[in-house]
Amino acid sequence: MHNNITTLFDALWADYVAITPSAQRIHKLLTGEENSARIVNDHVAFRTFNLEKCQLSHLAAHFLALGYEAKGEYDFKAKKVSARHFEHPDQTQPKVFISELRVAEFSSETQRIIHALVEQMPAQAVQADNFLYSGRHWQLSTDEYQSLISESEYAGWLAAWGFRANHFTVSVNHLNNIDNLTDVNTLLKEAGFVLNTSGGEIKGGESVYLAQSSTMADQFELAFSDGSLTIPSCFYEFAQRYTMPDGMLYQGFVEASADKIFESTNAR
Ligand code: OOG
Ligand code: NI
C-alpha cells in the first residue's frame, strides 16, 4: 500500500492524464499556462465489480490505510451499482468515491463474461501498492467489450480500462479567478470541450448543496486481444459545494446527480 497520500494521487493523476489528454489541457486552462495556481481536487472516483476478488472493500482498504473514513452510501438501481464515499480528516485531501457493479443482477451472458475476466486476476493483485492504477488484469476481446456495453456501459468501461481513477474533480470553490460552475462551463465550451448534458449541463445546485458538471470522456484507442477500438476513456468533473443551514460545507454526494455523471463515459 502507498504510505503517502500525495504520491498516491500523483501516480493516479499521471495514469489518468495519459489516457485523458483533455484533462491536462483543462488543468492548464484553469491554472494559466505557467501553472501558477494550484487546483484543489474535490474527489477522485473508482469503479469495480462486486466479486470477491476485487470488490469495493478491497479498493477502500488502500484509502482506509491512509486515514480515510467511510461516509455516505449510495444506490443506483437502474445501473445496478452501489457506491460509498470516503473522507480524510484533513479536509484539504480529496474525497474518494468508489462504486461497484452488482454483477449477479445482469443477464447470464454478461455474468459469464465478467466472471471469466475476474478469474484471470491473481487473488493478491488487489493488495499491490499500485493496484489503484494497475489497469486491466485480463484478456478482453472486442466482441466481449461490445456485448458488455450493450447491457451496461459501466461494465464495458471497467472491462476495458480496469482499475484506475475514472475521473478527477476540480473544486470550483477553490479556483482563484472563477467563482461559479456556470462560468467554468462557459470557459470550457468556448475552448471546444464537450460537456455531459444528460440531466442538464449542471446537475444539482444550491438546493442540494452540490452542483456538478463534467466533460464527456475522451476517445482513446485501446488494444484488445483481437485488435483495437477507439472508445471512451476518462472524463474531468467540476464541483461547487454550498454551505448548509448549520454553517458547514456539504461534503456528500447526490444520488440523482451522480446517476447522470456516470454517463460521461457512455458512447457518443
Ligand atoms: C462515478 C459517478 C458519480 C459523482 O461525483 O457524483 C460521481 C463514476 O462515473 O464512476 O463521480
Ligand atoms: Ni464525481
UniProtKB/TrEMBL annotation:
It comes from the Bacteria. Transmembrane segments: none annotated. Keywords: Aminotransferase, Dioxygenase, Iron, Oxidoreductase, Transferase. GO terms for molecular function: dioxygenase activity; transaminase activity. Pfam families: HGLS. It is an enzyme of class 1 (oxidoreductase). InterPro entries: HGLS. Belongs to the 2-oxoadipate dioxygenase/decarboxylase family. This is 2-oxoadipate dioxygenase/decarboxylase. Its cofactor is Fe(2+). Its EC number is 1.13.11.93. It comes from Alteromonas lipolytica.
